[in-house]
Structures are given as structure tokens and as C-alpha cells.
Amino acid sequence: MGCDRYSGIWVLRRAVTGTQMNCDRYLGTKMGCDRYSGTQMGCDRYSGTQMNCYRYSGTQMGYDRYSGTQMDCDRYSGTQMGCDRYSDTRVLRWTVTGTQVLRWDVTGTQVLRYSGTQMGCDRYSGTQMNCDRYSGTQMGCDRYSGTQMGCDRYSGTQRGCDRYSGTQMGCDRYSGTQMNCDRYSGTQMGCDRYSGTQMNCDRYSGTRVLRWTVTGT
């Protein structure tokens, strides 16, 4: 094979299996490389501009370890995923379960953190995100701000969330404004833990009842 270890401009290289590869270890400009399987991949270990790379399986992946601009990457399964470890600009990533998920590690725009069931979640800003921390069923949740989310842990204004069952529930832990929530059964209940205004809630049975926990009305 023909290979330039450093510049590698349009040269052929065998990494392990010796499959005809185009690779530049450092520049990687429009080069093909897979460190392990040698499947025709494009990879730049550092810049990764328009590169295909999968460290283990060699499945046609796009990956940039640092910038990841419009890259495809799955660290484990090699399914065509987009991932940038730092910037995550419009990329796909599998975290643990491998279900196609969207994730931004830093900015959190359109991400799935836990279940990966095609959910959108932002740990901090939650802008237009869907997330259930536990069940991952199509829930809307932002842990902190809840902007345009199915759930805000504190304000809960027009939010949908069940912390445990993940069934499409509306709940505000404190104000409960126009919320549906049953902490345990997750059946579509309306509950405000404190004011109970226009809420239906039984903390244990989840049957549609009216309850005020403070005023007792």
C-alpha cells in the first residue's frame, strides 16, 4: 500500500486488515481510514472534516473526536450515528442502550440522556425537548427551566411529566397549575401537592379524586 504517516494526502494505507484505505492520521482531508477493521472509512483523528470513522467495528461512520461537525459516530455498535464529544453540532449518538438518540453533551439542544427512546432532552435549558429521566416514554421534561417542555420540576406551567412511570402526565410539584400527576400509579391524574387547585389526585390509588393537601378542601 502507499501511505504517508503524517501528510497522507490521497494515499492508500492498511491499518490492521490491510483493506485498501485512504488515510491521513493527522490531516484526514477526504481520506478513508479505519484503525481496526480497515473497512473503507474516512477518518481524521483530530480534525475529522467530512470523515467516516468507527474505532471498533469500522462500519461506515462519520466521527470527529473534538469538533465533530456533521459527523456520524457510534462508539459501540457503529450504527450510523452522529456524535461530537464536545460540540455535538447536529449529530446522533448512542449512550448505552444504542437506541437512536439525539444528544448534546454541553449545550444539550435536542438530546436524549438516559433511556434513548427517541426522546429530546436538555438537562439544563430543555428548549423544545422531550425527556423522561427514567422510563423514556415520550415525555416533555426540563429538569431546571422546562422551557416549552412537558415538565418543569418547580414551576410546572403547562407541563407534562411523571417522574416515575413516565406515562404522559402533567405535574407541578409545587404550583400544579393545570397539571395531571400521580406520583406512584402514573394514571392520568390532576394533582397539586400543596394548593390542589383544579386538580384530581390520590397519592396512592391514583383514582380520580379531588384533594387539597394543605387547606383540606
Question: What does this protein look like?
Answer:
It contains no helices and no strands. The termini are far apart. It is mostly loops and 217 residues long. It has a domain of 94 residues. Helix content is 0%, strand content 0%. The radius of gyration is 23 Å and the shape is elongated.
Which key phrases capture this entry?
little secondary structure, disordered C terminus, 217 residues, disordered N terminus
Give a short summary of the structure.
The protein has 217 residues and is low in regular secondary structure. Helix content is 0%, strand content 0%.
Mean pLDDT: 37
Distance between the termini: 82 Å
What's the β-strand tally?
0
Percentage beta strand = under 5%
Helical percent range? under 10%
Can you summarize the main beta sheet?
none
The oligomerization state is single chain
Poorly predicted sequence stretches spanning 5 or more consecutive residues: 1-217
Shape: elongated
Radius of gyration: 23 Å
Structure class: little secondary structure
Q: How many H/I helices?
A: 0
